[in-house]
Design goal:
Shape: globular
CATH class: Mainly Alpha
Number of domains: 1
CATH superfamily: NCX, central ion-binding region
Helix content: over 70%
CATH architecture: Up-down Bundle
Mean pLDDT: 83
Strand order of the largest sheet: 1-2
Distance between the termini: 44 Å
Radius of gyration: 19 Å
Number of strands: 2
Strand content: under 5%
Largest sheet: 2 strands, antiparallel
CATH topology: A middle domain of Talin 1
Length: 349
């Protein structure tokens, strides 16, 4: 285990403990919110690091599948607790925000850092196009229930049923993509970040401990959310779109930019774009299907109009940007600028 791994574990332990303390001690409305958000980000990093340290022990394809399944656990826990608390706006914002944070903010930062350090970077167009098109198609399916509802067509009266159908289709596409991933010969992109393999017991123990901690921190975070929003005059949509989304995608935020800085644009794109694809194909459909069983607010795919517009437009822009197989710092700056304007638009709701 490297010194960086040890520091991350210590930081996760301390942050989780502080989150628990601030949840049960009078610390004001803002401190528990901030501490829990930081703890959630660190725990998300530990989950990602634990899978990364498997290396190619189970084969690169299988490692990628495991990473896909476990990488979004902190966001899943948060969404479950938030739905039980009736915070539907935060959950919708967090799910869409996770997509936007990767395809606009993180991809933009990777383009800027890589472009400034190495000039125009080139990557394999076939792989990039496939991932971008899969994201675009998944977003198109996600958008159909919302568009139908806002156009007041006949199916709008059956939004729950249509959301269920769309979720089943998306999960079917995800399942169909697994065999191809298992056969993949490509090394896991995050394996390009230096670090030794871990023994299997250590990996399993780290995953179990970080997952359990993430469940507790998610509960404390949701409890702290409402008073913090009131104090900070922040909307539910902004909290989900920006705060929760960035905290839950800490791994991609750091690793993707690091890979671009190392002049490994192919790996950077794989890390950054795989996460939103997994969210669209797996995480959102799973939450739609299990939400009726949680005893809180039922989640459907009928998103507010502005969320729909920014989700669709971001997927289209991502496809356009990666289709030429090149990235520049100017493209990255434009992506970051678009993310900033979208975030500002949701500050008030």
């Amino acid at each position: 285990m490297s010194r960086g791994d040890i520091r991350l574990f210590v930081a996760g332990t301390v942050a989780t403990a502080l989150s628990g303390v601030t949840a049960f001690v009078a610390a004001g409305p803002v401190v528990p919110f901030v501490v829990s958000a930081v703890a959630l980000a660190i725990l998300a990093s530990i989950v990602g690091r634990s899978v990364d340290r498997l290396g190619d022990r189970f084969g690169p394809g299988a490692t990628g599948v495991v990473q896909s399944a476990l990488g979004n656990l902190p966001e899943l826990f948060f969404a479950i607790f938030a739905l039980r608390a009736g915070l539907i706006g935060v959950v919708q914002g967090a799910l869409v925000g996770s997509i936007l944070a990767n395809v606009l903010l993180v991809l933009g930062l990777a383009f800027v850092v890589g472009g400034v350090r190495h000039g125009t970077q080139r990557f394999a167009t076939d792989d990039a196009r496939n991932v971008a098109l899969l994201l675009l198609l998944a977003v198109a399916i996600l958008a159909v229930p919302g568009i139908s509802a806002h156009l007041h067509v006949a199916v709008a009266r059956h939004e729950a049923a249509l959301s269920t159908i769309a979720s089943v289709v998306l999960l079917g596409v995800f399942v169909l993509s697994v065999p191809a991933a298992l056969k993949s010969k490509q090394v896991s992109p995050t394996a390009e970040i230096d670090g030794p393999q871990w023994p299997i017991p250590l990996v399993l123990g780290a995953l179990l401990a970080s997952s359990v901690a993430a469940a507790f921190v998610s509960d404390w975070f949701v409890t702290a959310l409402t008073p913090a929003l009131s104090t900070l005059h922040m909307s539910q949509a902004f909290a989900g779109l920006v705060v929760v989304a960035i905290a839950g995608n800490a791994v991609e935020n750091v690793v993707g930019v690091q890979l671009a800085a190392k002049n490994k644009p192919d790996y950077a794109l794989s890390v950054i774009l795989q996460s939103p694809v997994q969210i669209a194909l797996a995480l959102m459909p799973v939450l739609v299907l299990v939400s009726p069983l949680l005893g809180g607010t039922r989640l459907t795919l009928v998103l507010p109009p502005l969320l729909l517009v920014v989700m669709i437009s971001s997927a289209v822009i991502t496809a356009v940007v990666v289709f030429d197989g090149e990235s520049t710092w100017l493209e990255g700056s434009c992506l970051i600028g678009l993310y900033a304007v979208i975030a500002a638009a949701f500050w008030w709701g």
